[in-house]
Q: What sequence folds into this?
């Protein structure tokens, strides 16, 4: 399936629709199978001891899979997260940026599903895993679907 | 089971250990079965259109169940969220505060599990549902467990 | 919202569409808010030690929420489970039947969400908790939705 | 990390501890990173139309990750599933066997976490995705942990 948006287009989309958080994220790569997104960790993301908070990791997972889907279907601002399951595996080391590696598992007519591993700089094993489902508004899909 | 902490003690614990977010939350009631927590919605919690963001609802769910557990076992700053499953059910109306109603389902030697419904002011049906698991550090429990 | 099916209609629906498992289940009560379903535990459901297997509890949770939804929207055999999150809280005592208490949290145009607590006879605390999402085929809904 | 059990040892463990289901499963490969497990689909696993039931796919996911963990830590019959999140992505074609590809994400002192993709013969895209958490009884772990 052809990509509808590249990294620059995804970042421009974020800056327009999610200006409050778009500065935190950088799209490192995007392909038909998935997307790599980096998060700059700011003070507001931290918990005592310098570890990244759960909500900040949730936000990273959500944005990564969301952008991976948009890369496939084009700029659909109205796609809505309906479900997230997240496992926190290890405490991220203090002061390190995070990297999310997302992949799409289903891109259907009404639902899209993806999952993501989150890594911390300097740690080989993932610090979190998440899977997310999005509801796609009617008429948003273009081209043939996967499933 | 006797409560180890009341609402005032829980809010004082939050102010000490989570100063970045404690101003957002107010404990409305706490009992052996559960806890009601309100979140003041700030601009940083909002998405375009004024709706509350997913990460903000995740944070509310996490804090509500965490405090419900602390009320039972006492001030254990090291209890760690290991898993969260969250369903986003309806878009919260713009500009309304949120209320979380949490209950504890298991309070074991190493794991505690609770779930929570999130409501928006002026809407009878819940806007989100979440269940969370926490790992309890060795030696933290006091008194006999439930499960 | 008026009920579209009562307990007898739900059991008849199961016997027609799921004859392999319908003998295991009995609808104890059904209302606009939820449904109570009992499962007769058979040898095929057991693990060594006599405890009920995870897949058997998953099946009970899935059937309970599915029937609670059908009670509201009528006999829609094509509604499909898209997501389930389940927490196993305590080992069910050997040789005891199980009871599921399901409630509906969202009954939308394309998605329905419910959750359920599973209890074992002779144990006050729940043995499992689950939440499930169903995709509802176009045209299946009748009457006004909840959300 | 060295493997504690190979495919033959894992199948022998299943035959001893889970005789009711062990005939359904074959370990195709096992490595330090994961495990591939095949499930023979029997009539009891089917729903009308010939598709594999949700509980049967749940069982496959559970057994695959469980065996992947045992391969690492040795024969610990008491490891208990505490949480499962599963997404059903596509309806498996009728009459086809299933294959689970499991990987371990965390192997800690008290918790182990893995995830799994389930594939149907003759279909490239996965039919389901699941993540599972297991509680490991005290004293069961051997050797240094990953996390």
A:
């Amino acid at each position: 399936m052809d990509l509808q948006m590249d990294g620059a287009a995804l970042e421009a989309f974020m800056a327009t629709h999610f200006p409050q958080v778009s500065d935190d994220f950088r799209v490192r790569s995007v392909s038909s199978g998935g997307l790599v997104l980096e998060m700059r960790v700011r003070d507001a993301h931290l918990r005592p001891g310098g570890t990244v908070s759960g909500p900040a990791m949730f936000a990273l997972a959500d944005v990564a899979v969301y952008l991976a889907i948009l890369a496939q279907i084009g700029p659909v601002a109205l796609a809505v997260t309906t479900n997230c399951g997240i496992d926190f595996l290890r405490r991220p080391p203090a002061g390190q940026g995070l990297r999310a590696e997302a992949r799409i598992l289903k891109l259907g007519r009404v639902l899209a599903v993806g999952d993501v591993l989150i890594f911390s700089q300097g740690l080989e094993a993932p610090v979190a895993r998440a899977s997310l489902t999005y509801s796609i508004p009617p008429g948003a899909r273009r081209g043939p679907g996967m499933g």
In short: Residues 142-147 of chain A have pLDDT under 50 and may be disordered. Chain A has one domain: 7-135. Chain A touches chain D at residues 85, 87, 89-90, 105-106, 113, 115, 117, 125-126, 129, 131, 133, 146-147 (CB under 8 Å). The first strand of chain A starts at residue 25 and ends at 30.
